[in-house]
Predict the structure of Glutamate--tRNA ligase.
Amino acid sequence: MKSEIRVRIAPSPTGFFHVGSARTALYNWLFARHNKGKFILRVEDTDLARSSEGMIQVILDGLKWLGIDWDEGPFYQSKRIDLYQKYVQKLLNDGRAYYCYCNPEDLAREKKAAYERKQDWRYDRRCLNISPQERAKRERLKTPKVVRFLVPDTPVSYHDLIHKEIVREAKDVEDLVILRSNGIPTYNLACVVDDFEMGISHVIRAVDHITNTPKQLLLFRALELPVPEYAHLPLILGEDKSKLSKRHGALSLMTYKEQGYLPEAMLNYLSLLGWSPGDDREVMSTREIMETFDLSRINPSNAVFDEQKLEWMNGQYIYAMSDEELLEQLSPFLVTFGLIHETDIAAKKDWILKVCGLVKLRLKTLADVNEVARYLFVDDFEYDKEGLQKHFNADTIKVLQEFLSKFEDTEEYNAQSIENCVRTYAEAKRLKARVIIHPLRLFVTGKQGGPGLFEIMELVGKDKCVKRIRRKINEFKEQHER
Ligand code: GLU
C-alpha cells in the first residue's frame, strides 16, 4: 500500500446525484478518513453540453447533506483542458497515439452494420499509416481529426482489491479516441491524467467502470506514470435483482431528503450496500462506520437496495432522537404540510415537544408526520373507511352523545382525568370501555389505531375534542333525519 492514501470522487454532472454515486463517494470518504488520508472532489465536466453549474451544485449539496467533506477541490476538468492536451501531445510525439481523420458517422454506420451481422467491430487503424501526402491533403482541407491511442499488443492484468486478478487481452481493447476533434479530451485520458496529477493512490469506483480500467492502465504505462490501486464496488440492484433504475423508486439522493430521511440514517444504510462490519451490527454511527471501514470487507457480489430496510433504519434513527432534535428536524415538514405556521412554532414549542414524544415511535420518515399526526394539529383529516363502517352507527352515536355530556362537565383536563371519565361512564352504563374508546378514537383522530387515546385527547385539547365528537354526531343525524 502506498504511504499516503489519496482517493477521489469524480462525478459527471448529469442533473441529479444518484444514490450509487453517493455510495461511491461515501466509500472513498470512509477509506480516506479511516486511513487519515485525503479525499478529493473532481468534477468530470468535459461534456460541456451536458454540464451546468446547477447540476454541479446538486452534487455538492448532496455531499454536504450526508456530511461528507472533502479536503481538496472541487477541481473542474473543463478548466484543465490545456493540461490534458499536453499529455496527448506527449503520446503523439512518442508514437503512442495518432491522428484519425475518419468521419465519425461513417464509422458509426460500419459499426452498426457489423452489429447487425452479429460481428465484432473494432477501428481498423486505417489512419495509422496514411502517407505524408494524404495527411497534407486532409490538413489542407481542414478535415476534422481526433487523436487515437495506439493500444499496445500486450495483455493487461492487474490485481483488483475486490475482484482479485483481472486479465484483459489486448485484442479486446480498441484504439480509443483520447482527444475529440474540438480539442476536448475523452473520459479515459482525462481520468488518467488527473489520477496521476492528483496523486491518487486508490481508485475506488463502481464496477460498471471495470471495462475502462485496462484502457486506463495502458495509458498509464504509455505515459510512464505510476499506477494506482483499483477497487471496483459491486453494483446496486433493485429488489427484483435488475440494475437499480427509476422504476425501483427514487434514484436521486435528494429525493430521500425531501421524503424525510435523515442524513445519518441514509449514510448508515448506504455504507451497508456492499460492505459489512463483519459482525451483526447494522445501526452504526458515522464514527463507528469510519473506524470499522475496510476495503477487505467489501463483498464483490451485487448489493440490493431494499427500501423497506432503509425505512426501518430511518425509523430507528428517529426513535433514538431526543424530542428537541426531532422538533428541529420535523419543523420544516410541519410547515410544508400546512400543519402549523412557521411563526407559531416557537410559541407552541412545549406542546410540539409532547407531540414528538407521543408519535416518535410511529415515524419511519419525517414526512410520515402528516399521516401519523395530522389530527393533532388540524381538524381537516380523513376518516378511516373501515373504521366508519364499524363505528359510525346509531348505537355508537347514542353512546357518544351521552358520554359527551359527562365529558363536557369534567373540570380537570389531562390524560388521567379523561381516562377516569371514560371508565366511570362505562361502569355506570355497564358497558365495556372499548365500546366508547373505539368510536371515540375514530371521531377524534379519524383512525382506528395510534398512540394512547387519552394522551392524544389531552394534546388535542378539550374544546377541539368536543367539537370533533359533536361534528360526527351532527353529521350522522343530518344523514338520517333527511
Ligand atoms: N465520471 C465518472 C462517473 O461519474 C467517474 C468514473 C471514475 O471514477 O473513474 O462515473
